[in-house]
Each structure stands twice: as structure tokens, then as C-alpha cells.
């Protein structure tokens, strides 16, 4: 999945993916997407571990990038995110999120996101549902 144009768009705008340090990476498969995020002061909790909320944000943002790549010119928003955290990650490590499209409909996309640490151990599993809609110009 080619996400280079989306990465450029995200670089130009403030948002959670930039704030938390997410980096999106193109993949050779058309139904997968990938992101990495260093665990640091932007996304850790008080005890020095990756925040569970940051893990969920990584998964939702990755699924959003994937849906946008599949539906150019449309708006893709997360409408459901649920996950389980199975292992802690300390500050200084880097996590990798792998997303696989489970269902692609006209208005809904279902994604399964697995997040691993630098050793390849599973950290979190997250299910994301995106709603796909026409891009409209907001009225002012």
C-alpha cells in the first residue's frame, strides 16, 4: 500500500500523528499498512511505559491512513476502536504497528492492527472500524 502522498499531507498539518511521533511506511501488499513510533516523552505514561491510549491512537491513525490510501478523495474517520494491551514497552524502545484490512465496503472498512516491540513481541491487538464518506467542502 503506497502511503507517500498521505505522509506528505500529514507532515504539512498539525495533528496527533505528528504530536505522538508516528511514522507511516508503504508496504508491497495492497491490503496492509505499517507504522512505527518511538516510545518517548510524547507518548509515555508517568511510569515510563508506552501509554495504552497512545497505542490505540497509533492503531486508529494507521487504519485511517490505510483507508485514505484505498479511497482517494474521500474522508475516512474512525467510528470504533477496541484493543487489548498484553505487554508493556519501556521508554526508548520503538513499536511497530501492522494493519491488515479485514473488510472493505463502500462505507465501512474493518482493520486488524497488531503492535509489536523491537524484539517482535506482541504489545497490543486493536480492531478499528472506519466510516468512509464523500469529501465535502465545509460551509463557512
Account of the 3D structure:
- The protein has 140 residues and is of the alpha+beta class.
- Helices cover 23% and strands 40% of the residues.
- The protein has 3 helices and 6 strands; from the N terminus they run H-H-E-E-H-E-E-E-E.
- The chain has a 6-stranded antiparallel β-sheet.
- The longest helix is centred in the middle third of the chain and has 19 residues.
Short description:
This protein is α+β, with helices and mostly antiparallel strands and 140 residues long.
Characteristics:
single chain, 6-stranded antiparallel beta sheet, 3 helices, 140 residues, 40% strand, 6 strands
Topology:
Blueprint: H1 4-11, H2 16-20, E1 22-25, E2 32-38, H3 52-70, E3 74-85, E4 94-104, E5 108-116, E6 122-134
Antiparallel strand pairs: 1-2, 2-4, 3-6, 4-5, 5-6
Encode the helix/strand succession as letters.
HHEEHEEEE
Report Rg.
15 Å
Q: Count all strands and give the number.
A: 6
* Sequence stretches where pLDDT stays below 50 over 5 or more residues: none
How many helical stretches?
Answer: 3
